[in-house]
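Priority: medium. Attachment 1 of 2:
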């Protein structure tokens, strides 16, 4: 994966209200579908990644915890708020700074990025990679195909970060990791995501009031509204 192939796009969202127009500026990273496929990430990634304020704050908090001597962190939070996408952001953020990082989305393999380049490593055949992992931040995601990190991820890396739903804390007892609860996106961040997907961003505020702040749910409901509008005579 070429670390320099991803483009940034600055944009803004202007939302009209009865009182005034509200402007929300945001930045997107592009080309994310190709990145996600390369890393064997199953679903969830669109071709853009909106850099949420929470992602910036999480990255800062993780660095502070590492500097404090923590060996691992579990990041949890409500379903569908973009925890897995944060791992993509954190990976690209660290690669931009040329910091060694390993990431695992699939159960059978992970990818290491360091001074030796990028390597896809099969779990169970990674005994020779301990030295490389020991210098890495290891990022992993609990999804339908990966319930716990690989053995090497649990025991070897310099710092372990896992995304998981609330209650997925069995491995935390093994690693003595601390827990961070990720904040949901703001209404304007969700509206900006809807704009990037080609939906009416104004609909976000009504949908949030009905369904909450799950990005996944809002996108699903927006798709339904779009189809209904197209089919409406």
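Attachment 2 of 2:
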């Amino acid at each position: 994966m070429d670390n320099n192939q991803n483009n940034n796009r600055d944009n803004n969202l202007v939302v009209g209200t009865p009182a005034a127009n509200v402007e929300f500026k945001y930045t997107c990273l592009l080309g994310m579908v190709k990145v996600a496929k390369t890393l064997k990430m199953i679903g969830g990634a669109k071709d853009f990644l909106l850099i949420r304020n929470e992602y910036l704050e999480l990255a800062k908090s993780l660095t502070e915890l590492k500097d404090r001597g923590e060996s691992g962190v579990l990041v949890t939070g409500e379903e569908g708020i973009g925890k897995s996408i944060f791992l993509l952001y954190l990976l690209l953020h660290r690669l931009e700074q040329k910091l060694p990082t390993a990431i695992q989305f699939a159960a059978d393999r992970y990818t290491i990025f360091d001074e030796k380049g990028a390597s896809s490593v099969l779990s169970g055949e990674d005994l020779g990679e301990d030295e490389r992992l020991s210098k890495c931040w290891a990022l992993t995601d609990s999804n339908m195909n990966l319930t716990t990190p690989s053995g090497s991820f649990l025991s070897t890396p310099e710092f372990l970060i896992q995304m998981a739903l609330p209650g997925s804390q069995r491995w935390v007892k093994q690693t003595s990791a601390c827990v961070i609860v990720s904040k949901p996106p703001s209404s304007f961040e969700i509206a900006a995501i809807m704009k990037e997907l080609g939906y009416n961003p104004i609909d976000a505020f009504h949908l949030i009031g009905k369904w909450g702040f799950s990005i996944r749910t809002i996108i699903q409901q927006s798709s339904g509204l779009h189809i209904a509008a197209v089919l409406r005579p």
